[in-house]
Specification:
Blueprint: H1 8-27, H2 34-39, H3 50-53, H4 66-73, H5 83-87, H6 94-103, H7 106-114, H8 120-126, H9 138-142, H10 152-165, E1 181-185, H11 189-200, E2 204-208, H12 217-220, H13 229-241, E3 245-247, H14 258-263, E4 269-272, E5 278-279, E6 292-294, H15 295-303, E7 322-326, H16 330-341, E8 346-351, H17 362-370, E9 374-377, E10 379-386, E11 392-405, E12 411-415, E13 421-424, E14 427-430, E15 434-435, H18 438-442, E16 468-470, H19 473-476, H20 481-498
Parallel strand pairs: 1-2, 1-4, 2-3, 4-16, 6-14, 7-8, 7-14, 8-9
Antiparallel strand pairs: 5-15, 10-11, 11-12, 11-13
The structure holds flavin-adenine dinucleotide and iron/sulfur cluster.
Residues 126-127, 185-191, 208-211, 216-217, 221-222, 250-253, 273-275, 277, 299, 330-331, 334, 361, 437, 439-440, 472-473, 479-482, 484 line the site of flavin-adenine dinucleotide (FAD).
Length: 500
């Protein structure tokens, strides 16, 4: 049995055995040498069995045991130059939090992370660490394998889960009320971060959220099997304990405008974190057929409306046999894996380039492959085919080869003439990325946006309007949780300065 296939119990037992000599050495007052640390095996993440998990929505990655976390932490060299911190968009003090784990002080570890990252249980699960902190880790470089870098994200998740599961979460202290009011529009990672940082200063914060549940993409996009919704809810509960008010089913631009919030409802400042929830389509024939979904709609029905819970779901979902997902990012992986869990017999992912160019997190691609998702690389649809009732019955696909690199540095796909072919499917999910939500922008006079509809901000996240700030996907375009949080932190600092 390979290490990756070992069960949680086996991995825990192996870690306990490997820890014994390390503990003995530490007790004798001797420090581990760098060579000894580099020789400790990288700890695999225990995961649900690949076949079983295709039929449930429970979390796939089961999390390190305490012994695994302690052993993995011992792999860190505590580098003085901290290259991992340079790789982290919010500069989590990585060597410091790992040193606390080495000491067995998990609370101190999570507190250190929370100095710069308010959502460690989320980020430990969904951040693309292999492109950030772990990419620059000395251990991975020394062992010439990114997979052998210190598993910073898994350690972050371990301490955050430890804190939550042991009832150790303490809401941040809130200063005495200032009488100032701040409106936060959108409750994704950007909005939640702003709310926490502004509330701490004693300002009254109200979050306005269009959906009936707060959390943004963390709730309606990223599936339960990757990010359990109870974890996001815990973060939201912490905010309400800090006194933050959350108004759901409140669509700014319809219920009230930004101008009304500021001029009539007397908010002293507003933060716009409405994300990029507008799906892109391909503009090919057949996209209006029954059985074609945007990944956004498919995932929202599945996650937020709980379509996977067939007996209790408020919103039904199409039951498919053969699903084709178009795209190569996280959204495509989530849609494909969700389709499998909703009972599809076969799920294909069609991607224009190859595995090497796929933007999705490496772990999600590996999990999708283990679960039996079929990857058709170097392919793109020409048209979607329908029957006389307007239902999807297949797709005409074009083959591609890789040409020269484009402006993104990735080799661009070049169509192979005459290579078209047709294959059967009854569902097509388009996962080609998202654009800015237009409603708020259209209803806010004087708000400057770029040609893609992204709000233009200065280095303090301030928009063209007085006292109105913005951040996250509505500024960056579809990006990541950690980048949205980073923008939220900057905006909150500027709002706090404004209200001083
Ligand atoms: P969002 O999370 O989009 O939140 C915006 C909120 O604003 C929403 O709740 C929306 O309902 C609300 N809203 C919109 N308009 C209005 C309005 N007019 N009035 C009131 N409320 C409004 N990133 C990662 O780092 N790792 C991943 O693994 C990952 N996987 C992803 C998978 C999927 C399926 C998707 C779609 C995205 C994924 N991302 C991932 C990207 C990440 O989730 C986003 O970059 C991040 O959530 C952006 O945060 P945000 O706060 O800007 O906006
Ligand atoms: Fe530890 Fe790697 Fe960061 Fe060095 S680069 S301090 S080994 S996590």
């Amino acid at each position: 049995m390979s290490h990756e296939q070992a069960t949680k119990k086996q991995l825990d037992a192996a870690a306990k055995t490997a820890l014994e000599p390390i503990i003995a050495k530490k007790k004798a007052g001797q420090a581990l040498t760098a060579k000894e640390r580099m020789a400790i095996p990288a700890q695999a993440m225990p995961a649900q069995d690949a076949v079983a998990r295709g039929k449930n929505v429970s979390e796939v990655a089961e999390g390190y045991s305490e012994a695994q976390a302690l052993l993995e932490a011992e792999r860190c060299l505590g580098c003085k130059n901290q290259p991992c911190v340079d790789g982290c968009p919010v500069r989590v003090p990585i060597p410091r939090f790992i040193a606390e784990i080495q000491k067995g002080d998990f609370k101190a570890a999570v507190d250190a992370i929370k100095e710069t990252n308010l959502l460690p249980a989320v980020c430990g699960r969904v951040c693309p660490q292999e492109k950030q902190c772990q990419l620059t880790c000395t251990v991975g470089k020394g062992l010439k394998s990114i997979e052998k870098a210190v598993a910073i994200g898994r350690l972050e998740r371990f301490v955050a889960d430890w804190e939550r599961e042991n009832g150790k979460i303490t809401p941040p202290a809130v200063k005495k009320p200032t009488g100032k009011k701040v409106a936060v529009i959108g409750s994704g990672p950007a909005g939640l971060t702003v709310a926490a940082d502004v509330a701490r200063e004693g300002h009254s914060v109200t979050i306005f959220e269009a959906f009936h549940k707060p959390g943004g993409v963390m709730v309606y996009g990223i599936p339960e099997f990757r990010l359990p919704k109870a974890i996001v809810q815990t973060e939201v509960d912490t905010l309400t304990k800090m006194g933050v008010k959350i108004d759901t089913n409140y669509l700014v631009g319809r219920t009230r405008t930004v101008k009304q919030l500021i001029d009539e409802d007397k908010f002293d400042a507003a933060f716009v974190g409405v994300g990029a929830g507008l799906p892109k389509f391909m503009g090919i024939p057949g996209e209006n057929l029954v059985g074609v979904f945007s990944a956004n709609e498919y995932l929202t029905r599945s996650n937020l409306m709980k379509a996977y819970d067939a007996t209790r779901a408020a919103t039904p979902i199409f039951r498919s046999k053969i699903v084709t997902v178009i795209g190569g990012g996280n959204v495509a992986m989530d849609a494909a894996r969700m389709a499998l869990r909703l009972g599809a017999e076969k799920v294909h992912v069609i991607y224009r380039r190859t595995l090497d160019e796929m933007p999705a997190r490496a772990e999600e691609v590996a999990h999708a492959m283990e679960e039996g998702i079929i990857f058709d690389f170097l392919r793109n649809p020409n048209k979607i085919l329908g029957d006389d009732k307007g239902r999807v019955i297949g797709m005409e696909v074009q083959k591609f080869q890789l040409g020269d690199p484009d402006e993104s540095g990735r080799r661009s796909p070049v169509a192979i003439p005459g290579s078209e072919y047709v294959f059967d499917c009854d569902t097509v999910i388009v996962a080609l990325g998202n654009e800015s939500n237009p409603l708020l922008v259209k209803t806010t006079e004087g708000l400057v946006v770029d040609k893609k509809g992204r709000i233009v901000v200065n280095t303090d996240q301030k928009t063209s309007l007085d006292a109105v700030y913005a951040g996250g996907d509505i500024v960056l375009g579809a990006a990541t949780v950690i980048l949205a949080m980073g923008e939220g932190r900057r905006a909150a600092a500027a709002i706090n300065e404004l209200l001083k």
